[in-house]
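Batch job 17 of 40 flagged for manual review because the log was empty.
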Amino acid sequence: MILVTDSERKIKLPFSRGILTRSITLAGVDVGIAYIIASEVQKELEAKGLKTVTTEEIREITYRKLLEHGLKDAARSYLFWRKLRHMKMPVTLLLGGTTGVGKSTIATELAFRLGIRSVIGTDTIREVMRRIIAPELLPALHTSSFLAWKVAGSPGSGVIGGFEEQVRHVSVGINAVLGRAHKEGFNAIIEGIHLVPGYIRLNSKDFMYVITVRNRKELEARFYERARYSRRPADYYLEHLDEIMMIQDFIVERAKELGIPMVPNVELESTVLKIINDLMRSLMEELED
């Protein structure tokens, strides 16, 4: 067994090919190639007969292996993410977008690649608030986001008016979670329909993206696909597809007004890589400043 230590040789953990593979995929390398490179690193360490190795030595060998495979840009990205982790710079990712665009799936994949343990859905925040606040006080809080306009508290407000009312309420909880993350300095991903640009208080370590679909046919297909693996029936959402698409249009307009990047979710891998690459660029600019 090869033990990995920090630069001061204090912490000792077994070398993990899986963890190294995850670090390499974060640099934009396909998981299959990343696994091959991680295996090559392990074989080189074993060939040298090493019992302990520092994280810096692993980084140098991995960087060299990436270059040998002709992955110059990935090698540069790999060094950047390693440096960022060493600096322990807290990062909060926020993924907004209408119902069914794939926010939860994207958040889970990003959490795995970035090594972030806290993934929080705004539906969870809303559910906690529902248990505290009675329907009589805030009726818009106690219904679906695309049906909030029908409750007594939002007469004549229309789909967007009712949605905005719910967003205003849930944003109180979201901003509280963000404040806690900022104060304690931990990494987190927050995802949900209630992450509407302009309602969330962001700081320089918060990075917000709006996930979209290109048209209603794509969204319809996503609801059918989601129904295969969950208890959420597609028909319920398809009955309200007009309202859901109206909410997307509203969120997109807010994002355009406030300069929040939008990412069409056509295919999971490309969506995740686009967010990771944009995040790296933004963090590089932040470090330079």
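Reviewer: the log was empty due to a logging misconfiguration, but the result itself is present. Strands lie at 3-5, 12-14, 52-54, 92-96, 119-121, 188-191, 206-212, 262-264. Unflagging and moving on to job 18.
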